[in-house]
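Question thread 4412

I'm putting together a teaching handout and wanted feedback from people who do this every day. The idea is simple: show students a protein as raw sequence, then show them the structure tokens that encode its fold, then repeat with a second protein so they can compare. Below is the first pair exactly as I plan to print it.
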Amino acid sequence: MKSLIAALTVGCSMIACGQSDRQGVYFTPNPVPATPLPTFAESRTLLPSPIFDENRVWVETYWRAWELAFKNFHTPAPRSGYVSQFIDAAFNKNIFLWDTAFMTMFCSIGHGLVPGIASLDNFYVKQHETGEICREIDRQTGRDFDPWVNKGRVSLYSAWGFNTAERPVPIRYRDREAPEPPPMLTLDALNNPIPLWAELESYAYTGDRARLAMVREALVQYYRALQKYLRQGNGLYVTDWASMDNSPRNPFLLGGGVGIDISTQMAMFARQLAVLDSILDVPGGGGVWAEEADSLAVKINAQLWNEERGFYFDLMPDGRQPPVKTIAAFWTLLGGVASPEQASKLVAELRNPATFGRVHAVPSCAASEEGYVRLGGYWRGAVWPSTNTMVIRGLQKYGYDDLAREIALKHVAIVSDVCKETGTIWENYAPDAAVPGRHENGEPVVRDMVGWSGIGPILYFMEFAVGLRPDAPSHRLAWTIRSAQRSGCERYRFDGRVVSLTAVPEPGGRNVALTIASDGPFTLSVRYRDIARTFEIPRGNSEFLLRPEEEQ
């Protein structure tokens, strides 16, 4: 430990002096014309406008979320090196990689009107030549957050992690040599590699293959860097606090433990690279990535699954599984790691009121854990929009659509009720009451947090209440109508089109009248109760009456 501290404090390293690193070498952004930032007042009549007579409070919260988001749009500061307008995390003076990935998901609803997926360009352009991308970068200077810079260029260590007074903590590699050269960044900076997930979510709205081609090399190099620096000798991946600041899991990972989240995220990353290469017609690439994902999934299931407890756990450096159940285990659904049988056991936990099936699902650690905080306690129980999105998409992947919708709409309801009461949107929420989350010391979390907290009142609301889900590459829009009252959306944006859709159920709710206006053709798949129809929508106005098959 003394030698590590000495290495970090002696002299001016080449990194600190800026002599040994080039950034952004794997990414060439498209030129972006200098334009003023959009304002909410100007954009209000252009943004998608949901119709949902069943719950006007949800509609009001949708617009409040956008109003707050517009306060957190930024233009690159002079000499920052950033290349795109961006949405900020609304947390402090820095931009955050995993926050930004989640924020782009709801910004896709306003694609073309607001800074969205291109917010990630400011991270790609700051990527180190080693492939590393810092998870936190100064918003004004464009420099990596200073504590996460490996100034002594020593072997991997955690600067702040593990919830211990002992800092920094070196990471011990087991059954493999420490990689050379050492990383540019600390372990704190290298977690939650989810930009490609965000890119593919955006692709569903835009169908923009050119963007995927532009970001591919940066993402491949990022994946390889994490593989080089985070992979333990057992084939799994090390982590520390993994952006879950005070999680009860953290001390068990001290000094080289492997995480169920980072390991599964790397399997997911590889699978998504296979999808990316398939979209881009890269010869042979998809097969290589799929093999890597499959191999890692086998290792995860062999070492991190606990059959007796029906749950996934981290692995301590000594090879034992710690006892703590956290939301990190559910990454195995989104990552496609769990078998159907394992998935059913995870779903049972999501429905279990003693663990994760709380008043407001899904808490960040099980309610049965020592130190669980009923009003949140940050990562000791709080419900976070980020991890809820991971759970929801994972459930959809395994066919648990009803549970995914239940969790999503419960979140929309609580965020909306709290917004009506407090006038704003919060960083996280309590799991056992419809109130904003609190820190362990009882202090309130960040307010006006849009930020990633916009994902519930904007994306969840549009997808799970209004019922719209785009597939731009296929020029298709799916619309699941569940409300017994008027619903739909004016100026919905996908695949370069602007579409207005209104559904009005007739008295008794047996039939529903549809009105569609579009500035371009597309395929519309509609589901209402037990009725499913597909329509080829032309440019212009269309009207349809959905009714049961026997009445056609």
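The second pair follows. I'd like the answer to focus on this one:
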Amino acid sequence: MRMVRTRLAYAFYVLLMLAAARRPALRAQSAEFDGKRVLDVQFQPAVQPLETGDLNAMLPLKKGQPLRMADVRASIERLFATGRYADIQVDAEPDQDGVLIRFITKNSWFIGDVSIRGNVPIPPTRGQLENATRLDLGQPFTEAGVEQAITNQQRLLESDGFYRNHIQQRFDEDNRFQQMNIVFTIAPGPRASLSQPLLVGNLQMDPQRVLRATKFRRWIVHTWKPVTDTRVREGIERVRTLYLKENRLEAKVSLESMQYHEESNRATPTLRIDAGPRIDVRSVGVKLSEKKLQRYVPVFEEHTVDPDLLAEGERNLRDYFQSQGYFEATVQFKEQRVSNEESAIEYLVTTGTRHRLAKIAIAGNRYFDTASIRERMFLQPATFLQFPHGRYSAAMLDRDEASIVNLYQSNGFRDVKVTHRVQDDYGGKSGDIAVVLTIGEGPQYLVGSLEVGGIERLDKAAIMAKLTSIPEEPYSEFNVAVDRDTILAEYFDRGFPNATFEWSSKPSAKPHRMDLRFTIVEGTEQFVRQVVTSGLTITRPALVDRIITLKPGDPLSLTRITDIQRRLYDLGVFARVDTAIQDPEGETSRKYVLYSLEEAHRYSMAIGIGAELGRIGGCETCYDAPAGATGFSPRVSYDITRNDLWGVGHSITLRTRASTLDQLGLLNYSWPRFRSSDNLNISFTAQFEHSRDVRTFNFKREEGSVQLSQRFSKSVTLLYRYTYRLVAISDLKITPFLIPQLSQPVRVGIASTNLVHDRRDNPLDPHRGIYDTVDLGLADRAFGSQRDFGRFLARNATYYPLGKRLVLARSTEFGDIYAFHYAGDVLDAVPLPERFFGGGNTTDRGFPDEQAGPRDTSTGFPLGGTALFFNQVELRFPLVGENIGGVLFHDMGNVYSSLGNLSFRTSQRNLQDFDYMVHAVGFGVRYQTPVGPVRLDLAYSINPPYFYGFNGTQQELINAGVDPCAPPAPLCSVQNVSHFQFFVSIGQTF
């Protein structure tokens, strides 16, 4: 039998047809194959990037069917459309009464992990070098793209002074997933230094001033600094600022070139400078500081003068004056011609009479109440301190009108109109005005009917239940947009990335009704072929596999893909997590999902410096300040963490703190996701602390603990903890005969459970919500404790918004320590360090920190108690502008000797009675910062405790005997906690 083999590239039969007129032999050969039965369709190599089922489903060329040229052409086109092939060739081989078809393919490659190797000093960072490649995960790989990536990296290195850099690339082919992992090894060479810049152009200034402004040269040793992109840009900006100070607003300063001298490894920047004319920007009619002009006139920031920027400055200045109460202010700008390199821009300001926005009235609203409208408005009537003249301008008024219109239109009022009227001399008071907004609501349009077409592969009823544009509900384009996002989100989550949404509307038969039609084109459903991870070196794959819940065959859900990315970041072991779909444009239904991971540094450090200021004073041997004295304590901390221990996401942290009051060392081992659960975390802690409590005693504590935390929901967490500690006390400032009893080292083993319920809207500065904590502990001999007692401490805080501007916050705290298996006084049965100490900026601001409760009857120093009750109420309100708020507060409570002695009495029976309720009122200021409000509280204690205080030395106290304050007692006097207290800290009180 005669065998004939013909190999043609890409479109075998297409080329065969084009050549038929000129090549009769090929035409005859084609005629020989055409119509013959296809005996088999084979692929070479046998392992293809597409699965066998997908190949058979997509190819129109089928085994057993007649061979058609159109089928061959369509098969090749569909294979190329998948994006998985770089080249396709076809073999046709006759065999008996049919023909064998063989596709010879060459796979495409896609970008996988891109990494940087080599010791490159910062700057640039590795992240900057990776970004400079512009090689995106999952995109097609090309050699031209790699060459451009190297060029981009070289430019970045040269901009940071590495002119002698050398870059090598290495390709690691992953044939299984058609991924090309690329490693760039960079040898940066030495960093070049700057040399004296060349100044060209029209300087109009002493060149030495310009050179000094660049700060390219060290000011002491006069050597040139190394080249970095940031240093050069900052130098140019400083030169530009220098010209700006000379009122040369149009000065242009640019880096024309950077000439590298290889022999000296120096780079000479050439700065091109065009000084431009001096332009004097000033106000006429009212005096404005240069700082305010620079703030409101954008020519200073843009370094150019054009009519648009000047007009913007005109509007900004008008809005500023109107916001200051000059509601009739007008501003116009006037330019003067350049003369002798001088020019002027004058803003002519006419302020008019100063007004006060006394009232904002809203009329005509029936569908929305006034409060709902007002909370969307920027206009504010005059208030004491915060807005003494109100907040008003024409631009604000226009914005508020547009906001009201949008509110009504989104609820079906298509014809709504909002007008305003300004009433002068409101209430008969000259200068006061009222703004009256009149709303013409018009008819409300409702949805007459809704027809949804195109939903075939999802649950139509479930989607319809989530829509807002349903019959007899308000009709608006806003609601349609919400429904569009809802429907497409469902499709995207179910693996339909190309789903589209179209809608149309028409008037219904009923008045003020609109019939809606939604049309969805679902597109092709896509699935996960496999999840591919790369970049793991230390981290064990099993840790990542537990997080990646996407499995082969799952819908290609973009929501789940990004959620997994977030959870991988939450592990705390990755500095970067990139995710992508490999070849997203390829026409295949099964896609690879890629995660490229970059592990974070294994060690992290933190250094902190701070101080404590308040009534912390005293000293280890001083007895003359039992109620505390104003003091200052500097503090420094150093923490180091080893991350991703054993490659399983565990960490170990050493925390240290040192101050004049306290020295702390803490070693913590953290085991997150205990037993593969996202809701379980366990930690082991060893701690040593030496604390100098300047009021009553010093102590040394050695402690070990284990804690398991379990999160039941977003707002509820339960903590299980066992703690074993040894506490040694020294330098007690109390009656000498009590020292032997209270200064004995005590071992305490305590098992406890803590419930946290947090539903605050913002933990740093809550405005609504609730926060509860309940702590229940048991110290018993079974746990290795020398003392037996139970401990209960609960706190409840609530936050209520009062209108738009006020917040009423309340916190109540209650605790009790119940001792058992003891003889004598319950207070003596509880070790001194285990007692409750309270008072201060988080409990009762009528006391200095830790100064509440029972006191030693001889020295006046606090001894702590076994019960406590505190209640705090705050009214929080805006004070000045947007960032400064005020607080009026009332605190009440105390630490009590026992639960049975808890009393709400407000008066002290005698100098030995401390079991009564102390009240304090005060005022506080809060300044908003990114880390929470900085607060200052000034408190006045209405009924502070009085007590006997010893005024002598420690030796005099010892010589005085058992009762040093018994008559005659020249070294004892009646003292009291000061009526006035102050506190400075960060964060709200509770």
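Top answer:
Good format. For the second protein you could add a caption like this: Residues 280-350 form a domain with the Ubiquitin-like (UB roll) fold (CATH 3.10.20.310). The two ends are 95 Å apart (CA to CA).
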